[in-house]
Amino acid sequence: MKPLIEVQNLTKTYPMGTDEVLALRGVSFIVERGEFVALMGPSGSGKSTLMHLLGCLDRPTAGTYWLEGKAVSGLTRQEQAAVRNQQIGFVFQTFNLLPRLSALENVAMPLTYRGRVKQARRQAAEALARVGLADRLGHRPAELSGGQRQRVAMARALVTNPALILADEPTGNLDSKTGADIMTLLTALNREERTIILVTHDTAVASYARRVLQMQDGEFVSSI
User: Fold this and answer.
1) What total number of domains does the chain contain?
2) CA gyration radius, the chain
3) Contact, 28 vs 213, CB < 8 A?
4) Cα separation of 175 and 170, whole Å?
5) What is the pLDDT of residues 170-182, one digit of tens each?
6) What is the model's pLDDT at position 223?
7) Contact at 8 Å (CB) between 212 and 224?
8) Burial classification of residue 199, based on how many CB atoms lie within 10 Å of its CB (0-12 exposed, 13-18 middle, 19 or more buried)
9) How is the beta sheet containing 36-40 ordered, strand by strand?
10) CATH number for the domain including 104?
11) Over pLDDT 90: what percentage of the chain?
């Protein structure tokens, strides 16, 4: 069976006036199905750039990225959007919830984009129950705590049953206890063979992962 993710010589440069900033320097790695991998490194190390490329939010300057055996690094923006909707779930530090929508409506949104309107509310309610929010379906983000908002974001990431969950500093805006609760939930999801890649500055958060990739200056400097 092919790995879920295979990356070869991925490079990303950004224009900076008349110069270019080399954010990624030809990184290569493999992530098997069911792995829990943490990307660590200081600000500017390239981990967020790599996360954006893995999430099909950006395209590399050079190199190739295969997701489930398909080369996705050179897809058009429309094709990348389809991959994000169908194969990737996102959990962000800032939650990225729409304030005017209820928890149920926020979670159902990826399914409504697929045209699955009839199933969307039922599956969204099931996803919210999975993260312990069955009694908060009608609440808007402003009526929820930070930890509850992150659980809504996790339910939204799960509702499409994606091949890959990308979590970008998911505990960054939470207190230590709430952050530990979120990491316990991510660990439980990984035990269900869900593949998770996590970006974090926090060694305590990274300790939940099965493998840690340390980045510096756009390269991997160690793997634990």
Assistant:
1) 1
2) 17
3) no
4) 11
5) 998 888 899 999 9
6) 64
7) yes
8) buried
9) 88-92, 164-168, 195-200, 36-40, 211-216, 219-223
10) 3.40.50.300
11) 71
Give the Cα separation of 191 and 84 in Å (integer).
Answer: 23
Per the structure, the complete domain to which residue 171 belongs is given by 5-223
Distances (CA, A) of 83 to 72, 118, 132: 8, 22, 28
Q: What is the pLDDT of residues 14-37, one digit of tens each?
A: 988 888 889 999 999 999 999 999
Task: Give the helix, strand, coil percentages of the chain, each rounded to 5.
Answer: 35, 30, 35
In single-letter form, the type of residue at position 18 comes to T
Alpha helix positions (H), the chain: 47-54, 77-87, 103-113, 117-130, 146-158, 176-191, 203-206
Q: Are the C-beta atoms of residues 2 and 69 closer than 8 Å to each other?
A: yes
Q: What is the pLDDT of residues 49-95, one digit of tens each?
A: 999 999 999 999 999 999 999 999 888 889 999 999 889 999 988 88
- The percent of residues in the chain predicted with pLDDT above 70, rounded, is 99
